[in-house]
Amino acid sequence: MVKNLGQQHSILNQYIAEIRDERVQQDSLRFRRNLERIGMFFGYRISETLVYEKKEITTTLGVAEVPVLTDYPVLATILRAGLPLHQGLLNVFDKSENAFISAYRMYHKDGRFSIQIEYSSTPDVEGKVVILSDSMLATGASMVLAYKELLTNGKPKHTHIISILASTEGVEYLKRSLPGSDITLWVGAIDEELTAQAYIVPGLGDAGDLAYGKKL
Predict the structure, then answer these.
(1) What are the backbone dihedrals phi and psi of residue 37, each rounded to the nearest 5 degrees, phi first?
(2) Which partner for 52 in 26, 35, 67, 177 could form a disulfide, CB atoms 3.0-4.6 Å apart?
(3) CA distance readout (Å), 12 to 95, 192, 194
(4) For residue 123, pLDDT beyond 90
(5) pLDDT category of residue 180 using cuts at 50, 70 and 90
(6) Long-range pairs, 120-124, Cβ under 8 A, ≥24
(7) Gap between the Cα atoms of 56 and 60, Å rounded
(8) Which range of residues forms the domain containing residue 103?
């Protein structure tokens, strides 16, 4: 299931407009903050799908019956561009366990590249709801590998995958690579074009570089 929240009129589109805008991108602090706000927005929407139970809360004047989460989701992200988005989700689900996966592009002499998982730190995800986030879904390869890496620590009950911007090719790759999985893909926008270097067009550029500076 794919949920494109950018098709609805909401403040999310304001945040997406700012992270796309090359003038606003000059301020890395604002860029990170917008990614964080987008994470909070997605977190709120996903919270509507979770399971709640009624709990009696004692106030200074009496007792209130309030629906509260039965279990917090595990929050997983792909380093490094996913970190601000992950922080936004953690602002919403502040009692969650966290998982971090390092994926990078290994370039070959012929100009091609492959995605490599270098490091992962994850809790047990068996039977749990997982939210796996990364700012961009270009080819979809790193997201598929990250999801499979999570499976080495159990089979989640359901996985919510979040990407702010996705390519059509990346969305289709996820569908082909993870058929029959209990997965919901949440995106803010889907762009049609993907360059030979696997950059989304119009996209926004390299989210990691814009958030944390250029890398060697």
Answers:
(1) -65, -35
(2) 67
(3) 24, 20, 23
(4) yes
(5) confident
(6) 120/149, 122/74, 122/76, 122/149, 122/150, 122/153, 123/74, 123/97, 123/98, 123/99, 123/153, 124/153, 124/154
(7) 13
(8) 2-212
| Nearest residue to 5 via CA among 198, 140, 162, 170 | 162
Close Cβ partners of 53 (under 8 Å, ≥ 6 residues apart)? 67, 68, 70
- Please, what is the average pLDDT of the chain? 93
Write out the two tokens for 69.
Answer: 């989460």
pLDDT digits (tens, 9 = 90+) for 48-71: 999 999 999 999 999 999 999 999
CA 214 to chain centre: 21
* CATH number of the domain bearing residue 204: 3.40.50.2020
pTM assigned to the model: 0.92
pLDDT at 109: 67
Three-state DSSP string of 36-72:
HHHHHHHHHHHHCCCCEEEEEEECCCCEEEEEEECCC
